[in-house]
Amino acid sequence: MATTGKAPYKAVLTHGFLVDEKGRKMSKSLGNGIDPFEVINEMGADILRLWVASADYRSDVAVSPGILKQVSEAYRKIRNTFRYLLGNLYDFDYIKDKVSYEKLLEIDRWALLKLAQLVKRVTQAYDEYEFHVVYHAVHNFCAVDMSAFYLDVVKDRLYTTKPDSLERRSAQTVIYEICTALVKILTPILAFTTEEVWAHLPQQDKELSVQLAGWPEFDETYLDHQLEVKWEKILEIREVVTKALEEERRAKVIGHSLDARVQVYASDELYAFLKEMESDLANLFIVSQVEVYTLGEEPEGAYKSEEMPGLAVQVLQATGIKCERCWTYAETVGQDQEHPTLCQRCVSVMKGL
């Protein structure tokens, strides 16, 4: 200040006291301090960095072995998401294999919509020094949007369709976009993990380090409001079906969800909505068969939800024989002499290879 007349920094960020899980200020006399080097040696520097980002520093900041354990579980979810994304890009060349946005499957366009919303929210949070918002937004994206839904649903397509099919390349295109954006978003926080992910990302002309890769661009074209409204409704319906499946699993009617045949009974508008996409529902619900009927035809004891009064769900044992390749039950298993243990869909894939 004395020599230049101005502060040697552009902004100042202050934080509260460091306290233990009981809210007591950390001090030598209480002996409740945590040595960051011990945390680094035991858990790794990235978990310590993630804990810093997760804390709302405007008030007192709590840290304890229990809190660090919670953060390490969140870290594991993020890391496992990266592992899954990278694991499904081993044969993907973005330049040669990418599918244009217009040709992407609808669920893949929905995933890009969620990614665009994440990039927009996280960019704003970084600009405003709201690091805990970054942490919660990314963790929610990985745990809820990706692991609990999108990646679970596209797994069948990635593993069982023809390697160069539109269905598989569509999913891989989106997975590549997600992985590339996510690794850049997390670089300021998970410096070591993102460098490791970047090294395994299949891109020929990429920068030497993720630190040089720049920031993901926010693509307005991905923000399709109609698509968002439609898929919010699908997710609400899926949640009801999932609860019905869980009840039947507890009752030992089914084991895995693919053991199930689901009958959905819906009222007027909801019936028309579901009937139009009936052929896609088995994949979305991760069951073997789905049939849509009008509400009022449902048998006694069908599952009903208070959240969606116009919907009833009946779960039965799937019909047909289990395909040993895709694990779904189908009446077509055994119809092909060359591949007697496969369903018709898997037979066509095998013959096309």
Can you walk through the features of this model?
By secondary structure, the chain is α/β, with parallel strands linked by helices. The protein has three domains: 75-222, Orthogonal Bundle (Isoleucyl-tRNA Synthetase, Domain 1), CATH 1.10.730; 225-319, 2-Layer Sandwich (hypothetical protein PF0899 fold), CATH 3.30.2320.20; 321-353, no CATH class. 51% of the residues lie in helices and 8% in strands. It contains twelve helices and eight strands. The strands form three sheets. It has a four-stranded mixed β-sheet. A two-stranded parallel ribbon has the order 1-2. A two-stranded antiparallel sheet has the order 7-8. The radius of gyration is 25 Å and the shape is globular. The model has no long low-confidence stretch (mean pLDDT 94).
